[in-house]
Design a protein that fits this description.
mainly beta; Methylamine Dehydrogenase, Chain H; Coagulation Factor XIII, Chain A, domain 1; 5 domains; five-stranded antiparallel β-sheet; 59 strands; about 0% helix
Amino acid sequence: MKTKFLLATVALLIIGVNFCVGQTAYVTNEGDNSVSVINVSTNTVTATIPVGTYPAGVSVSQDGTKVYVTNQNDNTVSVINTATNTVSATITVGVNPQTLCVTPDGSKVYVSNQNDNTVSVINTATDTVSATIPVGGNPEGVSVSPDGSKVYVANVNSNTVSVINAFANTVSATITVGSHPDATSMRPDGNYVYVTNQDDNTVSVINTATKTVSATISVGQGPDGITTSPNGTSVYVANYYGHTISVINTVTNTVSATIYVGTSPYGVSITPDGSLVYVANWSSAGTVKVIDTFTDSVLATIIVGHSPVAFGNFISSFPTIIITDSVATSICAGNTISVPFTTSDTLNNGNIFTAQLSNASGSFANPVSIGTLTDTIAGTITATIPTNTPAGNGYRIRIVSSNPVVTGTDNGSNITVYPTYSNTVSASICHGSIYTFPDGTMDSAATVYTSNLSSINSCDSVITTNLSVITPNVGIHYTGTTCGCGSFWLQVDSMATSYQWINCNTSDSIITGETNNYYAPLLDGNYACIINQNGCIDTSACYYVLGDGVTNLAAADDITIAPNPFTDETTITFSEEQKNTLIKITDIVGKEIKSVILSAARNLNIEKGEMSNGIYFVQIINEKGIVNKKIVVQ
């Protein structure tokens, strides 16, 4: 790492919080091949763990059960079991491994190998190297994005940062930064990466969306280690030659404070609540300084092993957020889902947990917020899948917190989202007609009706029907005055605006006119008046004209039709035997469907035949007059 120091090595400090046994810091001691275990609550060393030769980088898994340590001269990574404080596995990686970082979900560890310009990818389930990725010259600092999709590696000799696509295991971008970039630190929201440039005493700020340097900040002499506060508002930089810590305000990108900590500070890391910063001093007799972030002052000094060094800040020891029980494996869009979760520690007051939904491929690049809970500890979020969520079978859910900013692991299995449909339609019927809604319900009155239909996988489809009824026969009445010519008079009340007299049998227009006009038809027949409303005819207002007056065609008590409505056939029954009785069936617009003469019989069967479902009119004519009735086919 440092060519000016014997053995050219450096160790990494990172504050690893093991919530199973309390908050714990794991400090690599380069000079005596060990890791010091510090109880953060008491600031005392509770154990010393032997590892490989010249240990450098340290990264603690999110669940606090494992610690990964790079051994520079052995070309290995030691895996420490935090329950027993012993090495449980040793993994061979590239040449001269420097720093490393565990992914948020704990499934991988990325290791920078300085002397062969590569990054090794460790599968934590098998403790084996699953891939080796070429990067720039002399890679050191490593950071992983909150969603685990990108890895950022500082290349000392190339003055660049390599951006690795974690899914393809290839470098997707190379960003030029300052001179001799050593360490990287990812802001918790994933929007920015901070890079220390040792030879020009600056920090480069990388905008992860544009993959460009958006700001360059001057700090102390020889910046190396770097860490970011849990809320992302402050960055702490260890200045090796300046013997100080520079505190950067990320809003203004300026140094807000400078804290003297001792000789040759390298590693820095911050506690989950953001209240304490730990600094490893390589040349200060093996010490770790503890900074109070509220006062920006040193409040404690801890004696550790020989030559503790921290290169880079990997904040993998934040509180963990884990979905505790399996969530539903399938759900309809628009429905709610319970998401129970637990945290490894109590978060700060005012914290908000947010449940996020990935896209159909499981990516959280643009997560959708589906529910929140204001709390500081474990709970259950009742989340709602948006109704416009596209159908898919690869969705995932995770929980993120706001104070501090922590991204939890996803639920661990795919969720299928089925579509629902919602539609609003308008329909109208003529007065006296019956409308059948999509769910089979029928009504003849104006209404707003919601049909809930079960579609694919029992997801509801909601169809809202705005049904209106056209009542054209406004204010019609007739006069029974009989003229010598055998005609009759009809009158339209002043409520009507305009009208047409029509022949009910033929739908032929007889005359148009204005209100309060009278009309005497010349021919015998059925007549009605329609108001100008989409041509609807109210047949109850039909009147039959004979030579000697007007007969109102009301339903006769001595004629029955049953069943009515009917599906296949119905029967017209008379109280007495008929002689030459004409029975005509017309549809709603007056088109003749059937015409039968009944003689020497009391019953007539009517089969549905070619009649479609709907309303039809039955006209019965004989020497006694005319009767109009309705039948319904369904």
